[in-house]
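Re: [ENG-882] Designed sequences occasionally contain unexpected residues at chain ends

Forwarding the minimal case from QA. Structure tokens:
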């Protein structure tokens, strides 16, 4: 038991210190996830901790499970209006955009690392997809309000582009090992996307029906609902994998579908699931930091910088321009989406695949992928807010009004009014996670049993409800002394 206590003490202190440091770093503009990676590296073989950890199989298992939780929470946080707004551009970025990125990075990797085309493209495929954990985390803590189409494109893309990256990685591993041809590779892509979509959407429909039935009988069981959704998410992820579909795609679409069909029932579980997602991110990034060898990254620093610079400043912007220019995105929006190509846990987990397949020189690729992720979080994540303001893609709801509204008495508003319009009219800032309508926002923001909310001096009072929906809201200005 003494050994167990020491392990729990060390693990608890490490996680606690990382979380506190992450909160403080986020206020300074640094990526929250960056802290966990650095903490793992400090504890690892080249850091003061000196812990020797080389279990790639365990890391891959933990990585896949953690990504399933993160994508599930991301899907449940994505409203159907957001999904529809971003689906078309995100689909192009998640397919053709990933392939173009992999090809450009692969060409540079061939020259920089002195490898043949198969190994170069393999490294390009590993780092080709944006990471849901990184994108969801940075967008929610950036402190800026983006245009709805831009933000939805970024979030939906990060949830959809994993199957293409997995397909390219596995196909190139098989090509190196001479186990499969292009026909088998294309069939792999069809299975990954097709079965992943089928399993995710069908399971989402069934779970939404179950949640609605349970919510009608026990409406205040958010913690229980969260556990049910979490266990169901693992079932969906594993089921898709067993039929050789994409578990990443399946669990994300599962979450989106549940949110669309059982919004009220799943809303109570969102807070608990957010906590699970943070725990999954913390554990995964700490474990990935433990696995890496910083001294080997230093040895390949020049080659790594060439690959990372190509990815951030050439491959991603070119892929985004090719995919979004025909869809009438402005030049500023294209540049911004190109900048927010954050890499996170997914490329590092994909870099474990060739390690487990015993591909020659694959540990070198793992270190390069890890370094690319570090640089991406440090540059793209840290300067996201500054770049957004520099490119003027930030939505300023108060910019058009000259004087604040002077309200005498009160107004009665329809709950279906867009929240952005209401906040603009009353000259108050949008919430950090704005809802589509006034009703949705109050439904999420009000404490259970409460009917009144004060937001920056404006009092919102619920007058009429229709089941779970808020129909009418009375708005008055908060009275202040003097």
């Amino acid at each position: 038991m003494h050994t167990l206590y020491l392990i729990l003490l060390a693990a608890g202190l490490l996680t606690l210190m990382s979380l506190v440091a992450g909160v403080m770093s986020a206020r300074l503009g640094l990526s929250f996830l960056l802290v966990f990676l650095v903490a793992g590296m400090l504890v690892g073989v080249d850091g003061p901790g000196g812990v020797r950890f080389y279990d790639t199989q365990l890391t891959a298992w933990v990585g896949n499970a953690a990504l399933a939780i993160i994508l599930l929470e991301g899907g449940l946080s994505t409203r159907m209006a957001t999904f529809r707004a971003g689906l078309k551009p995100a689909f192009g970025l998640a397919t053709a955009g990933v392939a173009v990125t992999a090809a450009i990075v692969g060409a540079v990797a061939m020259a920089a690392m002195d490898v043949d085309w198969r190994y170069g493209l393999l490294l390009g495929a590993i780092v080709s997809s944006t990471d849901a954990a990184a994108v969801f985390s940075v967008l929610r803590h950036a402190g800026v309000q983006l245009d709805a189409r831009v933000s939805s494109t970024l979030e939906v893309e990060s949830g959809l582009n994993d199957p293409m990256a997995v397909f390219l990685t596995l196909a190139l591993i098989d090509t190196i090992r001479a186990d499969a041809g292009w026909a088998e590779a294309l069939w792999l892509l069809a299975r990954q996307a097709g079965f992943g979509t089928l399993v995710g959407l069908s399971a989402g429909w069934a779970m939404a029906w179950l949640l609605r039935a349970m919510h009608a009988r026990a409406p205040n069981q958010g913690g229980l609902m969260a556990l049910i959704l979490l266990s169901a998410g693992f079932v969906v992820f594993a089921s898709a994998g067993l039929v050789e579909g994409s578990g990443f795609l399946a669990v994300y679409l599962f979450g989106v579908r549940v949110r669309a069909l059982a919004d009220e029932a799943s809303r109570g579980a969102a807070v608990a699931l957010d906590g699970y997602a943070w725990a999954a991110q913390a554990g995964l990034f700490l474990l990935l930091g433990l696995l890496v060898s910083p001294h080997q990254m230093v040895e390949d620093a020049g080659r790594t910088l060439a690959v990372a610079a190509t990815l951030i400043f050439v491959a991603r912007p070119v892929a985004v321009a090719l995919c979004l220019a025909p869809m009438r995105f402005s030049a500023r929006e294209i540049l911004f989406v190109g900048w927010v190509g954050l890499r996170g846990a997914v490329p590092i987990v994909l870099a474990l695949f060739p390690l487990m397949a015993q591909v020659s020189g694959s540990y070198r690729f793992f270190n390069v992928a890890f370094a690319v992720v570090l640089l991406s979080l440090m540059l793209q994540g840290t300067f996201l807010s500054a770049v957004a303001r520099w490119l003027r893609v930030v939505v300023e709801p108060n910019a058009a009004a000259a004087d604040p509204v002077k309200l005498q008495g009160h107004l009665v508003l329809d709950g279906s009014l867009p929240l952005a319009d209401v906040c603009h009219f009353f000259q108050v800032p949008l919430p950090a996670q704005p809802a589509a309508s006034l009703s949705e926002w109050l439904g999420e923001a009000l404490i259970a049993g409460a009917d009144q909310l004060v937001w920056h001096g404006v009092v919102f009072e619920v007058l009429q409800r229709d089941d779970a929906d808020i129909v009418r809201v009375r708005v008055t200005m908060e009275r202040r002394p003097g």
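QA comment: On inspection the terminal residues look reasonable. Residues 203 and 254 are 6 Å apart (CA to CA). Proposing we downgrade this to a documentation issue.
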